[in-house]
Specification:
The protein is built from 14 helices and five strands. It is elongated. A five-stranded parallel beta sheet has the order 2-3-4-1-5, with helices on both faces. Helix 8 links the parallel strand 3 and strand 4. The chain has 333 residues and is of the alpha/beta class. The protein is 55% helix and 10% strand. The chain folds into three domains: 169 residues, P-loop containing nucleotide triphosphate hydrolases (Rossmann fold, 3-Layer(aba) Sandwich), CATH 3.40.50; 47 residues; 56 residues.
Length: 333
């Protein structure tokens, strides 16, 4: 969800919440503007990688980019938050449906919407139900199955296998893929600015295997004109990807992501002065409670040296201080 400037009020309270920054500092606006310009003016067939450590602002930048793009009606924006798909058996089906739901309810998008929804029905989900419905009819018979019953079973099974084959052909891995590709091409012929932006975030909240599975989804559409992916990824995820099949440290994950991402963008590392600037920004916006802002302001230089230069760690430190104050302020020495 993208917070508006009015929503900034909801981030104010005793505790600093981990909401996205409304007006991020550290030249995030320059990074946002560059990405927005690349998305709008480049041939839409690439992947942008936003690299940064935990808490460095990957989600903040992704949301800032999305906020800047949301008024452009030629762009279809889809959010793939990895943690929502961690239990999905077929995440590609969910992604296809998400794209279909994001399309405007206009006649020009009807064919693409239908193709996406059809392809999103993975035939494996239907196979078990189809076969079980046949077998259960005969498995429940109390008597020995006759030759006539067996022939009937065989005939019905063959017809259902043909149905499964038809479902398979319509999935994204076969005819469905080419049909989706064709529909997007037609839309771009009518409107060259049309493109589908897929944001991929929170990979660090998934297991390495699930993160790899989600990245593999990108490969399915990576060569389709009209798709742009924007991925937030950390060095920790790179290492885990390389170690999925091995217990030893390797650089395979880094090579994998290099092949996947054509436009790498590294977030700047935070310095002590950046930390000071951020805390003062908190004070200016009223995000630090009045009864704490003076003591925080007086010790701001000490705070910048004492903790890791990371926006999320800064909030955690300030919250620990506030909690400790609330617990022990009433205690007599």
């Amino acid at each position: 969800m993208i917070l508006s400037r009015e929503d900034d009020l909801f981030q104010r309270g005793l505790i600093l919440t981990d909401d996205i920054a409304i007006d991020p500092i550290l030249d995030f606006n320059l990074y946002r503007n560059a990405i927005v310009n690349i998305v709008k003016t480049s041939h839409p067939k690439f992947t942008i990688g936003i690299f940064g450590e935990w808490g460095a602002g990957k989600t903040t930048l992704i949301n800032s980019v999305d906020n800047a793009l949301q008024t452009d009606k030629s762009l279809i924006r889809v959010r793939l938050e990895a943690w929502r798909y961690k239990w999905e058996q077929f995440p590609i089906a969910s992604l296809l449906k998400s794209i279909a739901y994001a399309l405007p309810a206009e006649k020009q998008f009807e064919d693409l919407k239908k193709k996406l929804e059809t392809s999103g029905i993975n035939f494996l989900k239907n196979t078990a139900d189809i076969l079980t419905s046949i077998i259960s009819k005969y498995a429940s018979e109390e008597y020995e199955i006759s030759q006539e019953m067996f022939d009937t079973f065989k005939k019905e099974l063959n017809s259902k296998i043909q149905l499964i084959a038809e479902l398979d052909r319509d999935t994204v891995y076969f005819d469905g893929f080419e049909e989706i590709k064709r529909e997007i091409k037609n839309l771009r012929l009518e409107n060259p600015a049309f493109r589908i932006i897929v944001y991929v975030d929170d990979l660090d909240k998934c297991s390495p295997k699930k993160a790899l599975e989600l990245l593999e989804i990108i490969r399915v559409f990576q060569d389709v004109e009209g798709f742009i992916y924007i991925i937030g990824i950390s060095h920790d995820i790179l290492m885990k990807l390389g170690n999925i099949e091995s217990n030893e440290k390797t650089n395979e994950g880094e090579h994998y992501v290099k092949n996947l991402i054509q436009v790498p963008i590294a977030l700047p590392k935070w310095s002590n002065q950046d930390t000071v600037k951020l805390v003062r920004d908190f004070i200016k916006k009223g995000m630090i409670h009045d009864k704490f802002k003076d003591v925080v302001d007086k010790n701001i230089e000490l705070i910048s040296v004492a903790i890791d230069n990371n926006p999320r760690e800064i909030k955690r430190f300030l919250n620990n201080f506030i909690v400790a104050h609330e617990i022990f302020s009433g205690k007599k020495s």
